[in-house]
Amino acid sequence: MRRLKRILTTGESAVLATAQEVASALGAQVWAKMRIADVLEIDKSGISDELYSYALRGHFDTLMVRDNLARMAIEFDGPGHNARHDNKKAELCEFFDLPLVRVRIGHLTARNFEDNAVSFLIHQLECVDQFLENYGNDPYEPYDPAWFIAVPGKDRRWPFAYANRWRGRLVKGLKENANKFDGDLRDLYANGLVNLGCIEAAFVKDEGRFRCVSGLLAATGRAVWGAAEFDFEVRGLTGRRRDLFMELASFVDGLAAAEMFEKTVAFLAGDEMAAEPIVRLQTLLRNWSKDGFYLRRGMNVPSYD
Protein backbone atom coordinates (compact mmCIF):
# COMPACT_ATOMS: atom_id res chain seq x y z
CA MET A 1 0.00 0.00 0.00
CA ARG A 2 1.41 3.36 -1.02
CA ARG A 3 1.32 6.06 1.62
CA LEU A 4 2.00 9.79 1.53
CA LYS A 5 4.57 11.15 3.94
CA ARG A 6 3.66 13.81 6.48
CA ILE A 7 5.24 17.09 5.46
CA LEU A 8 5.54 18.54 8.98
CA THR A 9 6.06 16.99 12.38
CA THR A 10 3.63 17.85 15.17
CA GLY A 11 6.07 20.39 16.60
CA GLU A 12 6.77 21.98 13.21
CA SER A 13 3.02 22.27 12.63
CA ALA A 14 2.60 24.02 15.98
CA VAL A 15 5.40 26.48 15.19
CA LEU A 16 3.88 27.14 11.77
CA ALA A 17 0.44 27.79 13.26
CA THR A 18 1.85 30.21 15.83
CA ALA A 19 3.91 32.05 13.23
CA GLN A 20 0.93 32.28 10.85
CA GLU A 21 -1.26 33.80 13.55
CA VAL A 22 1.32 36.46 14.45
CA ALA A 23 2.38 37.17 10.87
CA SER A 24 -1.21 37.69 9.76
CA ALA A 25 -1.62 40.46 12.33
CA LEU A 26 1.64 42.01 11.11
CA GLY A 27 0.76 41.93 7.41
CA ALA A 28 3.28 39.18 6.64
CA GLN A 29 3.07 35.61 5.36
CA VAL A 30 4.56 32.34 6.58
CA TRP A 31 5.78 29.49 4.41
CA ALA A 32 6.94 26.02 5.41
CA LYS A 33 9.80 23.84 4.14
CA MET A 34 11.30 26.50 1.87
CA ARG A 35 14.47 25.44 0.09
CA ILE A 36 17.36 27.63 1.25
CA ALA A 37 18.51 28.32 -2.33
CA ASP A 38 15.05 29.71 -3.09
CA VAL A 39 15.34 32.16 -0.19
CA LEU A 40 18.97 33.31 -0.35
CA GLU A 41 20.73 34.58 -3.47
CA ILE A 42 23.58 32.09 -3.36
CA ASP A 43 24.82 32.46 -6.97
CA LYS A 44 28.08 34.42 -7.11
CA SER A 45 27.69 35.22 -3.42
CA GLY A 46 31.17 34.12 -2.40
CA ILE A 47 30.05 31.32 -0.09
CA SER A 48 32.02 28.09 -0.02
CA ASP A 49 31.21 25.16 -2.31
CA GLU A 50 30.11 23.19 0.76
CA LEU A 51 27.59 25.84 1.80
CA TYR A 52 26.43 26.28 -1.79
CA SER A 53 25.78 22.56 -2.13
CA TYR A 54 23.94 22.46 1.20
CA ALA A 55 21.76 25.45 0.26
CA LEU A 56 20.57 23.54 -2.79
CA ARG A 57 19.49 20.60 -0.60
CA GLY A 58 18.52 22.12 2.73
CA HIS A 59 15.34 23.93 3.76
CA PHE A 60 13.97 26.23 6.43
CA ASP A 61 11.26 24.71 8.65
CA THR A 62 9.29 27.96 8.88
CA LEU A 63 9.92 31.23 7.07
CA MET A 64 8.20 34.56 7.70
CA VAL A 65 8.00 36.70 4.56
CA ARG A 66 7.06 40.30 3.87
CA ASP A 67 7.12 42.13 0.53
CA ASN A 68 8.25 38.86 -1.08
CA LEU A 69 11.48 38.80 0.95
CA ALA A 70 12.46 36.56 3.85
CA ARG A 71 12.06 38.22 7.23
CA MET A 72 12.85 35.49 9.78
CA ALA A 73 13.54 31.76 9.76
CA ILE A 74 12.38 29.53 12.61
CA GLU A 75 13.82 26.05 13.12
CA PHE A 76 12.12 23.52 15.39
CA ASP A 77 14.45 21.12 17.20
CA GLY A 78 12.15 18.30 18.23
CA PRO A 79 12.60 14.56 18.81
CA GLY A 80 14.65 13.03 16.03
CA HIS A 81 16.18 16.36 15.03
CA ASN A 82 19.46 15.86 13.18
CA ALA A 83 21.84 18.62 14.23
CA ARG A 84 24.47 17.62 11.66
CA HIS A 85 23.76 20.58 9.36
CA ASP A 86 22.75 23.18 11.96
CA ASN A 87 26.06 25.00 11.73
CA LYS A 88 25.82 25.25 7.93
CA LYS A 89 22.35 26.75 8.15
CA ALA A 90 23.48 29.18 10.83
CA GLU A 91 26.54 30.17 8.78
CA LEU A 92 24.37 30.89 5.75
CA CYS A 93 22.00 33.04 7.83
CA GLU A 94 24.95 34.92 9.29
CA PHE A 95 26.37 35.54 5.82
CA PHE A 96 23.07 36.78 4.37
CA ASP A 97 21.87 38.62 7.51
CA LEU A 98 18.70 36.55 7.81
CA PRO A 99 17.50 36.25 11.44
CA LEU A 100 17.29 32.60 12.48
CA VAL A 101 15.88 31.37 15.79
CA ARG A 102 16.00 27.78 16.96
CA VAL A 103 13.11 26.69 19.17
CA ARG A 104 12.11 23.58 21.08
CA ILE A 105 8.87 22.29 22.55
CA GLY A 106 9.44 24.46 25.62
CA HIS A 107 9.23 27.57 23.46
CA LEU A 108 5.73 26.50 22.48
CA THR A 109 4.49 25.50 25.93
CA ALA A 110 6.00 28.39 27.94
CA ARG A 111 3.32 31.07 27.99
CA ASN A 112 2.78 34.58 29.25
CA PHE A 113 -0.92 35.26 28.87
CA GLU A 114 -1.67 35.01 25.12
CA ASP A 115 1.98 34.73 24.05
CA ASN A 116 4.33 31.79 23.87
CA ALA A 117 8.06 32.21 23.30
CA VAL A 118 7.75 31.71 19.54
CA SER A 119 5.20 34.49 19.10
CA PHE A 120 7.23 36.74 21.40
CA LEU A 121 10.37 36.25 19.30
CA ILE A 122 8.53 37.24 16.13
CA HIS A 123 7.15 40.37 17.77
CA GLN A 124 10.60 41.12 19.19
CA LEU A 125 12.10 41.46 15.71
CA GLU A 126 9.30 43.82 14.70
CA CYS A 127 9.81 45.91 17.84
CA VAL A 128 13.57 46.10 17.35
CA ASP A 129 13.28 47.27 13.75
CA GLN A 130 10.60 49.80 14.68
CA PHE A 131 12.86 51.08 17.45
CA LEU A 132 15.88 51.38 15.14
CA GLU A 133 13.78 53.18 12.55
CA ASN A 134 12.71 55.73 15.15
CA TYR A 135 15.92 56.10 17.16
CA GLY A 136 18.71 54.67 14.99
CA ASN A 137 21.88 53.90 16.88
CA ASP A 138 21.35 56.44 19.64
CA PRO A 139 23.17 54.77 22.57
CA TYR A 140 21.30 56.92 25.09
CA GLU A 141 17.88 55.60 24.08
CA PRO A 142 17.35 52.38 26.06
CA TYR A 143 15.37 49.47 24.67
CA ASP A 144 13.16 47.00 26.50
CA PRO A 145 10.08 45.33 24.97
CA ALA A 146 8.32 45.72 28.33
CA TRP A 147 8.37 49.50 27.77
CA PHE A 148 6.46 49.41 24.48
CA ILE A 149 3.07 51.02 25.05
CA ALA A 150 1.57 49.92 21.74
CA VAL A 151 2.79 47.23 19.33
CA PRO A 152 1.55 46.39 15.79
CA GLY A 153 -0.52 43.23 15.86
CA LYS A 154 -1.42 43.66 19.53
CA ASP A 155 -4.79 45.00 20.68
CA ARG A 156 -3.74 45.89 24.22
CA ARG A 157 -1.43 48.48 25.75
CA TRP A 158 1.89 47.45 27.31
CA PRO A 159 1.57 43.93 25.81
CA PHE A 160 5.04 42.73 26.88
CA ALA A 161 5.08 44.08 30.44
CA TYR A 162 4.35 40.54 31.55
CA ALA A 163 5.64 40.75 35.13
CA ASN A 164 3.67 43.93 35.78
CA ARG A 165 0.55 42.33 34.32
CA TRP A 166 0.90 39.38 36.71
CA ARG A 167 1.47 41.73 39.65
CA GLY A 168 -1.50 43.83 38.56
CA ARG A 169 -3.73 40.79 38.96
CA LEU A 170 -2.73 40.63 42.61
CA VAL A 171 -3.64 44.20 43.58
CA LYS A 172 -7.22 43.45 44.63
CA GLY A 173 -6.30 40.36 46.66
CA LEU A 174 -3.44 42.17 48.40
CA LYS A 175 -5.68 45.09 49.31
CA GLU A 176 -8.29 42.76 50.76
CA ASN A 177 -5.69 40.78 52.72
CA ALA A 178 -3.27 43.54 53.72
CA ASN A 179 -3.66 42.49 57.35
CA LYS A 180 -1.63 39.35 56.59
CA PHE A 181 1.49 41.49 56.14
CA ASP A 182 3.77 43.27 58.58
CA GLY A 183 4.27 47.00 59.16
CA ASP A 184 5.13 49.02 56.07
CA LEU A 185 4.14 46.17 53.77
CA ARG A 186 0.61 46.30 55.14
CA ASP A 187 0.34 49.95 54.19
CA LEU A 188 1.89 49.44 50.76
CA TYR A 189 -0.40 46.60 49.76
CA ALA A 190 -3.50 48.20 51.31
CA ASN A 191 -2.92 51.12 48.95
CA GLY A 192 -2.24 48.93 45.90
CA LEU A 193 1.48 49.80 45.73
CA VAL A 194 2.50 46.29 44.76
CA ASN A 195 5.62 47.30 42.82
CA LEU A 196 7.16 48.85 45.94
CA GLY A 197 7.16 45.45 47.64
CA CYS A 198 8.39 43.42 44.69
CA ILE A 199 11.67 41.64 44.07
CA GLU A 200 12.83 41.29 40.48
CA ALA A 201 16.14 40.09 39.07
CA ALA A 202 17.28 39.01 35.60
CA PHE A 203 20.57 37.15 35.20
CA VAL A 204 22.25 36.51 31.83
CA LYS A 205 25.03 34.24 30.60
CA ASP A 206 26.43 33.75 27.09
CA GLU A 207 23.97 36.34 25.81
CA GLY A 208 21.04 33.99 25.21
CA ARG A 209 20.73 32.21 28.56
CA PHE A 210 18.42 33.79 31.13
CA ARG A 211 17.62 33.12 34.78
CA CYS A 212 14.96 35.30 36.38
CA VAL A 213 13.24 35.66 39.72
CA SER A 214 10.11 37.58 40.61
CA GLY A 215 8.77 37.94 44.15
CA LEU A 216 6.85 39.90 46.75
CA LEU A 217 8.02 40.67 50.25
CA ALA A 218 5.71 39.00 52.77
CA ALA A 219 7.35 39.66 56.15
CA THR A 220 10.74 40.35 57.68
CA GLY A 221 13.11 37.88 56.06
CA ARG A 222 10.38 36.14 54.03
CA ALA A 223 9.07 36.46 50.48
CA VAL A 224 6.79 34.76 47.99
CA TRP A 225 8.77 34.22 44.79
CA GLY A 226 8.98 32.33 41.54
CA ALA A 227 11.96 31.54 39.32
CA ALA A 228 12.38 30.73 35.64
CA GLU A 229 15.21 29.43 33.46
CA PHE A 230 15.03 29.89 29.70
CA ASP A 231 17.50 29.86 26.80
CA PHE A 232 17.35 31.31 23.29
CA GLU A 233 19.53 30.59 20.24
CA VAL A 234 19.57 33.36 17.64
CA ARG A 235 21.73 33.72 14.53
CA GLY A 236 21.88 36.04 11.54
CA LEU A 237 21.73 39.31 13.48
CA THR A 238 24.65 41.68 13.89
CA GLY A 239 25.55 44.96 15.57
CA ARG A 240 22.98 46.97 17.47
CA ARG A 241 20.13 45.04 15.89
CA ARG A 242 21.40 41.89 17.56
CA ASP A 243 22.11 43.67 20.85
CA LEU A 244 18.53 44.93 21.02
CA PHE A 245 16.98 41.66 19.91
CA MET A 246 18.73 39.79 22.71
CA GLU A 247 16.91 41.93 25.30
CA LEU A 248 14.64 38.97 26.00
CA ALA A 249 14.50 39.06 29.79
CA SER A 250 10.96 40.47 29.88
CA PHE A 251 9.54 37.16 28.65
CA VAL A 252 11.49 35.13 31.23
CA ASP A 253 10.61 37.69 33.92
CA GLY A 254 7.00 36.97 33.08
CA LEU A 255 7.45 33.22 33.51
CA ALA A 256 8.93 33.80 36.97
CA ALA A 257 6.13 36.24 37.81
CA ALA A 258 3.51 33.68 36.77
CA GLU A 259 4.89 31.26 39.39
CA MET A 260 5.03 34.07 41.94
CA PHE A 261 1.37 34.86 41.15
CA GLU A 262 0.25 31.29 41.86
CA LYS A 263 2.20 31.15 45.12
CA THR A 264 0.87 34.53 46.25
CA VAL A 265 -2.71 33.41 45.61
CA ALA A 266 -1.99 30.35 47.76
CA PHE A 267 -0.42 32.53 50.49
CA LEU A 268 -3.43 34.83 50.58
CA ALA A 269 -5.65 31.76 50.85
CA GLY A 270 -3.80 30.71 54.02
CA ASP A 271 -0.81 28.70 52.82
CA GLU A 272 1.91 30.15 55.07
CA MET A 273 4.54 27.86 53.49
CA ALA A 274 4.22 29.77 50.21
CA ALA A 275 6.26 32.56 51.84
CA GLU A 276 9.82 31.24 52.04
CA PRO A 277 12.87 32.54 53.91
CA ILE A 278 14.76 35.02 51.77
CA VAL A 279 17.94 33.08 52.56
CA ARG A 280 16.69 30.41 50.13
CA LEU A 281 16.36 33.02 47.43
CA GLN A 282 19.83 34.32 48.24
CA THR A 283 21.20 30.80 47.84
CA LEU A 284 19.58 30.47 44.41
CA LEU A 285 21.02 33.80 43.25
CA ARG A 286 24.42 32.87 44.64
CA ASN A 287 24.38 29.59 42.70
CA TRP A 288 23.46 31.39 39.49
CA SER A 289 26.35 33.76 40.06
CA LYS A 290 28.75 30.86 40.65
CA ASP A 291 27.57 29.29 37.38
CA GLY A 292 28.69 32.40 35.51
CA PHE A 293 25.39 34.29 35.30
CA TYR A 294 25.59 38.02 35.98
CA LEU A 295 22.87 40.36 37.17
CA ARG A 296 21.57 42.31 34.16
CA ARG A 297 18.85 44.22 35.94
CA GLY A 298 17.08 44.08 39.25
CA MET A 299 14.83 45.72 41.80
CA ASN A 300 15.04 45.13 45.58
CA VAL A 301 17.43 42.23 44.93
CA PRO A 302 18.51 40.67 48.27
CA SER A 303 22.27 40.50 48.77
CA TYR A 304 23.74 37.16 47.77
CA ASP A 305 27.49 37.83 48.14
Structural commentary:
A hairpin with a 3-residue loop joins strand 7 (198-205) and strand 8 (209-219). The model has no long low-confidence stretch (mean pLDDT 94). The protein folds into two domains: 10-108, no CATH class; 161-299, no CATH class. The chain has a five-stranded mixed beta sheet. A five-stranded antiparallel beta sheet has the order 11-9-8-7-12. The protein has a two-stranded antiparallel ribbon with strand order 5-6. The longest helix has 20 residues, at 249-268. It is built from eleven helices and twelve strands. With 305 residues, the protein is of the alpha+beta class.
Give a brief description.
The protein is an alpha+beta fold. The protein has helices at residues 10-26, 49-57, 86-96, 105-109, 117-135, 162-168, 171-176, 183-190, 239-245, 249-268, 278-290; strands spanning 29-35, 59-66, 69-76, 100-103, 111-112, 115-116, 198-205, 209-219, 222-231, 233-235, 276-277, 294-299.
